[in-house]
Amino acid sequence: MLTIRVVRESRAPSAGPGAPGERRVALDPTTAGKLARAVSADADQSIVMVDAGAGRFSHFADAAYDDVSGVQVLEAGQHAEDAGLVLCVRPPEPELIDSLAEGTVLVGLLSPFQSRELLERCKARRITALAMELVPRISRAQSMDALSSQAAAAGYHAALTAAHEASVFFPMLTTAAGTIRPARVIVVGAGVAGLQAIATARRLGAQVWAYDIRAAAREQVESLGARMIDTGVDASGEGGYARELTDDERAAQAEALAKHLSTAHAVITTAAIPGRPSPKIITEDMVERMQPGSVIVDLAAEGGGNCELTRPGETVEHNDVKIVGLLDIPSQLPVNTSEMYGKNLFNLLTPFIRDGELVLDFDDAVIGPMCVTRDGDIVHEGVRKALEDKA
C-alpha cells in the first residue's frame, strides 16, 4: 500500500509572523484526505503522513490533519522512511533526499535548472523526481499546472501592491473637491499572472493597458476590459511562451512601450521564462521618462527582473519612480495557494493510483515531460543540457 509523506518546508520561516520564508504546504487537510481515500477506502489506514508543523505557516494546524480520515501527523523529528511518494513545495534540502528509500517518487517545484546538487543526490539514491514547473501546457494538464495556479495569486497580489504603493487613487472619485480621474496602469505580459493583474486592477477602478508580444493575447486582454498596446511585433512561441525577440523587434517594441510608460501611474511586469533569466523590457531610460511618483511592481524579480533597475526582494527609487522587486508572492497568500497547489498535485497523481499503488507511465504526455531523474540518471534532456552548460 502506498504511503505518502508531506514534508515540512525546509525554507519555512524561522521566526514568527512577517519573517521571510516559504509559508505554503504541499497538501491542505481537505486535499490530503481526498488523496488518502484515492489510495484506500479503509478509514483505519494512515496513508498520508504529514511532518509535524508542515502546515503551521499556511494556517493549517496539526490537529486539522489528524482530524481527517487516512491522514496522520508525525511526531516532531519523526519521518516516514517507507514513504513511496514524497510531496513538497520548494526543493528539499539534500539531506532529506539522502534519507529517502531508493525508488521513492519526489514531486514538487524543484527548480531543476538551478538544483544541481539536489538532482545529483536524486541520481545517487535512484529517486524519481517530477518537477511541477515542467508540467506541459496542454489542455489535459490545465488542472495540474502549478505555475498557472500560483501565478494567478501573484498577479492578484501585484495589483494590490501597485495600488498600495502608487501615489494616486486607482478608481475615479467624485468628491466635493472635484473629480479625480482613474489611475493609468500598464501590465507587461498577458499570461496568467498578467491577466489576473489586469482583472484586479480593473476591479479597483483603474484604466488598464496591456503589453504582450504575443498577438494571441489581445482577445483575452480586451475581454477583461483592458486595451492592448500595439507594437507591431508578434513573438508567439511554443508552449504558450513568447520566443526571444530579434534586435530590430526589440527596438520597435521598446519605442512603443516607452511612449505608454511615460504616462502611467503604475506598471506591473510579469514576463518570466522558467529556468532562464527574466527578459529586460524596461530600461533605465524608460524609467527616467516616467512620471514622478509612479511605481513599477516587478513580478519577474526572481529571475532578475523585467526592469534594469530591479533589485530582487527590495524596493528602490530612481528619479522619483519606485521599483518593487517582489519575491515568492504565492507564499504571502498561503491558505489559498496551498489549496490550489494541493489540487494540482491531486489531479496529477490520482490517475496513476491503481489498487493502492502509484504506477507512473513515463510515456504519458504529462508525466514524461516533467520527469527529471529516474533510475539513477537525469532523463530530462533540457535540464541535463542546461546543467552541463553550467559545469
UniProtKB/TrEMBL annotation:
GO terms for cellular component: plasma membrane. PROSITE patterns: ALADH_PNT_2 (PS00837). GO terms for molecular function: NADP binding; oxidoreductase activity; proton-translocating NAD(P)+ transhydrogenase activity. It comes from the Bacteria. GO terms for biological process: NADPH regeneration. Pfam families: AlaDh_PNT_C (PF01262), AlaDh_PNT_N (PF05222). Residues 5-154 form the Alanine dehydrogenase/pyridine nucleotide transhydrogenase N-terminal domain. The keyword Transmembrane does not apply. Residues 163-325 form the Alanine dehydrogenase/pyridine nucleotide transhydrogenase NAD(H)-binding domain. Keywords: NAD, NADP, Nucleotide-binding, Translocase. Its EC number is 7.1.1.1. Gene3D superfamilies: NAD(P)-binding Rossmann-like Domain. It catalyses: NAD(+) + NADPH + H(+)(in) = NADH + NADP(+) + H(+)(out). Belongs to the AlaDH/PNT family. The transhydrogenation between NADH and NADP is coupled to respiration and ATP hydrolysis and functions as a proton pump across the membrane. This is proton-translocating NAD(P)(+) transhydrogenase. It comes from Larsenimonas rhizosphaerae. The lineage of its organism: Bacteria, Pseudomonadati, Pseudomonadota, Gammaproteobacteria, Oceanospirillales.
